[in-house]
Amino acid sequence: MRQTPTIRSLLFFFGLYGICSGLLQDADNCTNYKLQFEKAFSVPGEMAMLKSTLVSPDVFDFNTVPYNITWLDSKTGEEISNQTGRVLVRGETLWLLKVTLDDSGEYVTILRTPSRCYRQATKLVVDLPFPGECGRPHKTQQRLTKGINDKLSCPLKDYIYKLDSYSVSSSLTWHRGCEPILNEMDKYIYLSRTTLLINNVDAKHNHNYTCTLNFTLGGITGSVSETINTWVREEHSMVPQVHEPTNGTISAQIGSSFSQLCSVFVPGVGLSFVDVFWCTKSEIIHSIDPADRVYTTKQPLRYQDGPIKGVWLEVLLTFSELTKEDFNISFTCQAQNGRGHPQAYFTLVPADPNILIPIGSLFGCVMVFFIISVIIYYMFKVDIVLCFRRVFPVLYTNKDMDGRLYDAYVACLQPCAIGFSEEVETFTLHTLPRVLEKACGYKLFIAGRDCVPGEAIVDSVEENIQASRRLLLLYTASTFSSKRHTSSTSSPSSNNNNLSKNNNSEDNGESKTGEGGSGGRSEEVYPDTRQHLEFLLAMHKTLLEGSLKVVLVELEEITSAQLALFPESVRHLRKKQGAVCWWKEQRMRQRRRTCMTRREDEEKGERDTQLSPSLSPSSRFWKEIRYYMPVRGKRAVYPERTALLNL
Length: 647
Hints:
Layout: H1 5-28, E1 31-35, E2 40-42, E3 48-51, E4 68-73, E5 87-90, E6 93-96, E7 105-112, E8 117-126, E9 139-145, E10 150-153, H2 157-165, E11 170-176, E12 179-180, E13 188-190, E14 195-198, E15 208-217, E16 220-233, E17 236-237, E18 241-244, E19 248-252, E20 258-269, E21 275-279, E22 294-298, E23 302-304, E24 310-319, E25 330-336, E26 343-350, H3 353-379, H4 381-391, E27 408-411, H5 422-439, E28 444-446, H6 447-450, H7 457-466, E29 470-475, H8 482-487, H9 492-507, H10 518-545, E30 549-554, H11 560-564, H12 568-577, E31 580-581, H13 582-595, H14 598-611, H15 620-628, H16 639-645
Parallel strand pairs: 1-8, 2-8, 9-16, 19-26, 27-28, 27-29, 29-30, 30-31
Antiparallel strand pairs: 3-6, 4-7, 5-6, 7-8, 10-14, 11-12, 11-15, 13-14, 15-16, 17-20, 18-20, 20-24, 21-25, 22-24, 23-24, 25-26
């Protein structure tokens, strides 16, 4: 049957009506979330973004369930589609590119999944700006704090986030009233894309601030703005700072009591509205009853008036008895106010006293033993070293094979020298060899005893010092007097010339006489010259070459005034290594004698014929001498090494 055009038109009309009726009926069966609480505000000429909140995990699983979105105009009931330069639909977002007063109203979002349908309305409010005002009629409220650097946050973050998802570039500018705000370090700083930092806030910053976002979308360059009504307040509180606990572990014994303080500092002025509490991962610790095993106690407020004003809030967490359930979990102290909610935690771990106590005891014993050992060593260093040499002689090389003839060269006072006396001569020629040579086995060269007659002084001194392992420098308080110190300033070449002249005159049998007699004058020159050469060579080899060790032997007590007249090299050596003092030994011996009875003195005198205490190698003086003398070792030296030593 052939249909006429009129019948075809009627059938098309009834079909379209059925489809629209089905759509309306389907929309009426959707879950209706009604009107969004948040409205969108705009002014004519700007862009406006309407965003549905149906695409949310609270509504459905949009990551796995497919869906489609339709926007409807509530005034006409028609579906909204893209219109060039006018409307742009991007899923759950509807963009009005050029807003007019007629655009004000509600816009409906229909979201369909294979099994469900959801409906929501979003309202757009379009107002005309107030005459003579650069800001927007609708304003948000933000606070600034007086006396600090505070910041304003632009409410257009959702716009920026959405544009970034489209890869659309945008720029943000700020105005204070109608004046643009420049990025100035001393006044205003564009801290980020949405944040304006205001330096040193005061009452003049009570004003309206407008942030404007400029961008191009759908081929249209437009903008959107928000105005912030700011007010400055003096009482304020900043972000809380949790000082305790410190995000670490704490060792404790099971069954013991334990307390931990939560210490929070809130910078600011005036009252601080901060909530501080303890919690675990699963619950907040509410108990304040000391009868409970775990409870909290709030401490009194402490105000701080220092460079940074503020208040300290403290809450004490107490465990009357620790159990296994308290260990290896985090106890968190949290502080909350409008500025932020920082937190810190601590974790209890079981302590092991069986390890810490023994380690501490062992460390303490080692330290005590070390300190006692150091004290004993410094008090009895000489005795310890001599005992070690005697017990382990095999550890030391036999010095007889090092190419040197003497263990020590004795540089002593010569007759007619300043400071020479019978006691000095007795000590040098009798006491010293009796102990060191006869009792201890050392081989000494003593200038007044072992010189070869007729030998040149320079050759004798230099060769015998070179052939000695040590040099014993004997001196009294007047050895380095002003007279001798003056003579010691002469050069070695002049001393050599004097010695040559003296030797020539002696060899030729000539005698120079004067008004004072020739013999006395020549006797004074010889000992002074020898002692001067011994001193120069000893100091040179000790301080400059380091090839000889000098042992200072003090025969008399030296005062500070007398020591000041000594050559600097002697004072340096005396300060560095000290001196062995014979006068201390004599003084100690004299004290012993004064404390002895006459009978003991007689018995002591009988024993002096064998070995008196002052001549005993075990006395303190001789121990110190032996300490500085070369070691009488027994270890053999290889011929190759001996040959090298003789070079």
